[in-house]
Write a structure and sequence with these properties.
Length: about 180
């Protein structure tokens, strides 16, 4: 599924984030930035040691923030490491922190002249954020950002399985039905 917002495209695909040829892919990291499982493990395995070396120099980052490194051996030029919140019960600022993780990733992309960016579904694996709620926050944060002035021309969500893709598609259908600035293509 693909839509247009302003001068940018927003696309949902099923696949592996490490295989994306874009200016930057986003990593669902943890506060140490020293690697882990899921997307994080896959990115460090495929990208090689140069990424971890830069992460070590940066040190850790609090939840909701983002930092950029080389893409190492990945097809993507750079990796934006962000830290999503661990879901507890929804009353520990989880929605706000997830929104910050997306927003700060977009800001990093802009600062480093990335015009194409690919996101995984942050916090919905090991961090157990409910997929439906997470998809609403993820998509509406990106749509709001693309309505402003931005050099970003392409945003791709890379969903790892068909259930995640179906959830994101349903949410995007709902959002586009009530927003004339989202154009279906
Ligand atoms: N490409 C795209 N999506 C993927 C891939 C992949 N290669 N692999 C997994 N997913 P997670 P989190 C999906 O657990 O919840 C790490 O240990 C996965 O199915 O990677 O933010 C970090 O170091 C799920 O829908 O990230 C942190 O400690 C989504 O990506 C912690 O996990 C996110 O799952 C972060 O947890």
């Amino acid at each position: 599924m693909k839509v247009i917002i302003g001068t940018a495209t927003l696309e949902l695909v099923e696949g592996d984030i490490t295989r994306q040829t874009v200016d930057a892919i986003v990593n669902a990291a943890n506060t140490t930035l020293l690697g882990g499982g899921g997307v994080d493990g896959a990115i460090h395995r495929a990208g090689g040691p140069a990424i971890l070396e830069e992460c070590r120099k940066v040190g850790g980052r609090p939840t909701g923030e983002a930092v950029i490194t080389t893409g190492g051996n990945l097809p993507a030029k750079q990796v934006i490491h962000t830290v999503g919140p661990v879901w507890r019960d929804g009353s520990h600022r989880e929605p706000e922190l997830l929104q910050s993780a997306y927003k700060n990733s977009l800001i990093q992309a802009e600062r480093h002249r990335c015009s194409s960016i690919a996101f995984p579904s942050i916090s919905t694996g090991a961090y157990r954020f409910p997929l439906d709620k997470a998809s609403r926050i993820a998509l509406s944060t990106i749509i709001d950002h693309l309505k402003g002035t931005t050099p970003i021309t392409a945003v791709r969500f890379v969903l790892f399985d068909s259930a995640a893709r179906a959830t994101y598609e349903k949410t995007l259908h709902h959002l586009s039905a009530e927003d004339k600035d989202i154009k279906n293509v």
